[in-house]
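Long-time lurker. I teach an intro course on protein structure, and each term I like to show students one example going from raw sequence to a predicted 3D structure in token notation. This year I'd like something fresh instead of my usual example. Would anyone be willing to generate the tokens for the chain below so I can use it in lecture? Attribution to the forum is fine with me.
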Amino acid sequence: MLLVYARGGPPPSDAIPKAAAATDRLHLLLLDPLPLPAVAPAARCCASVTDLTADRPEPGELIDRIVSLARRTAADAVLTFSEFALLAVAEAAERLGLRGPGPGAARARSKRLMRRTWADAGLPVPRFRYVDSLTDLERAWAELHPPILLKSAWGAGSIGQTVLEQRAQLAGALRHMLGALTAARARSMSELKAGEAGHELIAEELIPATTESWYDRSGYGDYLSVEGMVVDGAYHPVCVTGRLPTVPDFTELGNMAPCVLPEPLQHTVSELSRRAVDALGLGTCGTHTEIKLMADRRLCLLETAARFGGLLLTQQIEAIHGVDLVGALTRAHLGQDPGLPDGLLTGPGRCAAGSVNVLATDSGGRPWTTRPLFLPEAVDWDRLLSPGSGIRVAPDFTVPSGTVMHRYRTGHGSLNLAGVLLLTAPTPQVLLRDSYAVLNGLEEALAGAALAHG
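-- Reply from a regular --
Happy to contribute to a lecture. Here you go:
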């Protein structure tokens, strides 16, 4: 197996050993530097490590380099967990005659192709327009029903997204978007194969989302995700994951699992995910489909990625349901039985687990008024958490201890991220309570930690 690493996806310190355990020999190709916690596991688990980070190939050369290394290592499969390397790896696998996402990967990366494919299939999507210039954006404003959302067609992590409520915002929003995309490229958070297509934008109407008719309590976000896999063209949904509400402009605060919706509603969500994934025509890959909740139990598609959800989702699913998605996908690429569950997992599982993103804002999107040091080891977590709950820092995605928290900037999405916390709790209800306690109490807790730290 040749594993291609670039930023994004599950924590490599966890994913690399799991992939290695599912194959006889794992070779690693680095397109971005590994986070420090993953360096030792990679050295221990990999038969070879090829480092291209100092001289990353141009988009046109990248696929050739992947193909060449796969042939040199006699790889039976080529795999990536990164959104940004997905297209390059998919095309390399096609050239090599190996399993992979297939040509449908482009429809799962470009939001333009994705929206068009779903609209043509009669699936629920917001009205949209392509944007390549200010003239295009002005036309979209005239043809759509404001407010509208401007986003990158190739982006991830809500980077650059802006809600436009007045026509006077258009020119400034376009400049902001292009600046945010430039910042994303500098942080290796941009598409590796598409080149200049990375500047393609899309404008769409806001989805009138609501949790009414879905949840019987407040606190959950108005969208969900369905985690799953496609194996040789057949879709296998694994579970539905809940979300915390986003903060402007649609920056994610975290996710909650297991999903607390009644089983029939989870199957309703999963069925729309199945139709969406099937329309994209994927081969073998992980999937992460985001769906907005609407009134009267209606749904609207946001997006599907031909890879697993990023950050801690694979670890949460394993903790709750005992399913190792990384190992399953590795086996599927090698033509083996992935060992997936027979159907959608809707039960309570072993525990509740969630991720909380460390941002300098509270749960309502109010930016912090101070810039404390990030000192998680000195925080008195017991004052924030319920009895029986636990919390730990995800080191692959978190700034070093002692880093000054930077201010929250609306429209910069995951570029604001300082870290990720993994929460576990006895029940989903306790998990929800603790997640809000951390989000709304972390600024003060860090101030106290700094005093205790001296």
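Some talking points for your students: The longest strand covers residues 234-243. The domain at 2-98 is CATH 3.40.50.20 (Rossmann fold).
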